[in-house]
Amino acid sequence: MAEEKAEGGLVFHPLDQFIVKPLFGDGPVHWYTPTNVTLWMGIALLAILAVFVLGSRGRAIIPTRLQSIGELIYGFIYKMVEDVTGKDGVKYFPYIMTLFLFILFANYLALIPMSYSPTSMIAVTAVLGFGVFICVTILGFVKNGASFLGLFWMSDAPAILRPIIAIIEVISYFVRPVSHSIRLAGNIMAGHAVLKVFAGFAALTLVSPVAIFGIVAIYGLEVLVAGIQAYVFTILTCVYLKDALHPAH
Amino acid sequence: MATETTDAVAGACVDAGGSALGMPQLCADWMPNQIFWLVVTLIAIFFVMSRIALPRIGAVLAERSGTITNDIAAAEELKNKAAEAEAAYDQALLDARAEAQKIVAEAKAEIQAELDVELQKADAEIAAKTAESEAAIAEIREGAKKSVTAVAKDTAKELVAAMGGSADAKTITAAINARMKG
Questions:
Q1: CA distance A167 to chain B (A)
Q2: Residues of chain A neighbouring B1 (CB-CB closer than 8 A)
Q3: Which residues of chain B neighbour A59 with C-beta distances below 8 Å?
Q4: Which among B4, B25, B61 is the top mutation candidate for probing chain A, defined by the most A β-carbons within 10 Å of its own β-carbon?
């Protein structure tokens, strides 16, 4: 799918931005090699540390700017977890907060020109999505035992329809992690690829004003998408967690 | 966004010119690397958040809401105190007003009583003076009558004497008395 369009000598490589490169030297990429993925995940980690650890350093009753950003995000996610999963879901708040922060910061850092977007890689989002799926499923069985299977059995549906609904529910349950991870990776990757295509057109004098306007517009859209995708991933995680804790419909 | 590949990275996912062959996302050679570093990053974020940042922010938020609750309670207490003080003030005002009215009524009654006594005294005095004056007038009248009688007697005696007659005092007095009555 490497889009190589030759247009007036222009060659587009919109997907080259996602190439994983070792940070040091040109050697092969082993599983432990520090790469640009490592670098940008590390920057995300440092940014999170800056906001949440450095920002809350003063433990001020009247918060500083950085501290109030941290408190805002804390309150937002805490309320989301509490509202969606209920009181007993609150103890999973740190896990959900971790997911949200990683995705949010990775998404926004990826919008810096020349940066790398780890959340556009399907391997990364699949680990997140399937990680949530596996944890939630295990949690569901641990908490509810076999009655967790009641999630698939619509007891208020007509008796004839129940087996059919159960099959559909099972399929939709197993599709969850796939859609969960592809949604995030697809959104981020598509946005960045489109930006790159517009950037390639900007080299043509004739269309460059349109192309540059397009970059601005798509960039604005991507700013929204970055936040919304982090939010969507997190709230879906909360919904799956709620299903695991309270499987009865 | 863009990480241009300038130097060729040899591998199954990159061509000789350093461009991606297919989607870099699907290159299996790179996946273990991403997964490994993702797991490292997530664990690091989780530990920092759950050990340091989240308890700290939670404590700050709890402390703040506690402070706000306390302040609101203190404000409520002060408000109640103010209301109490206002009620006491109103009560004091009412008492003072009632007291003042009582004093005014007392003073009025006292003045009225004094006035009555004075009036009676004055009436009595006036009555006494009137009686005295009447007595004086009666006396004067009596005196005048006597004088007139005496003058008339003398004049009548003189007139009789001048006419050449002589009249005894008894007859003249009787005549004059008869005239005075008429």
A1: 31
A2: 17, 110-115, 117, 192, 195-196
A3: 56, 59-60
A4: B25
SS3 (DSSP) at B14: strand
- Alpha-helical (H) ranges within chain A are 36-49, 65-85, 93-109, 122-144, 161-201, 208-245
What ipTM goes with this model? 0.88
Q: Do the Cβ atoms of B52 and A53 come closer than 8 Å?
A: yes
A115 touches chain B (CB under 8 A): yes
Share above pLDDT 90 across residues of chain A, in percent, rounded to a whole number:
59
State the nearest Cα–Cα gap between B53 and chain A, in angstroms: 5
Lowest mean pLDDT segment, chosen from A8-12, A105-109, A145-149, A240-244: A8-12
Q: Which of A2, A16, A56 sits opposite B53 (nearest CB)?
A: A56
Q: Is-contact A169 A152, C-beta < 8 A? A: yes
Cα-trace Rg, chain A: 22
Point out the least confidently predicted range of A196-205, A219-228, B115-124. Answer: A196-205
- Output the average pLDDT for chain A: 89
Angle at A217 between CA A216 and CA A221, to 5 degrees: 115
Q: Where are the domains of chain B?
A: 24-181
User: B12 touching A, CB under 8 A?
Assistant: no
pTM: 0.73
Structure letter (DSSP) for residue A150: G
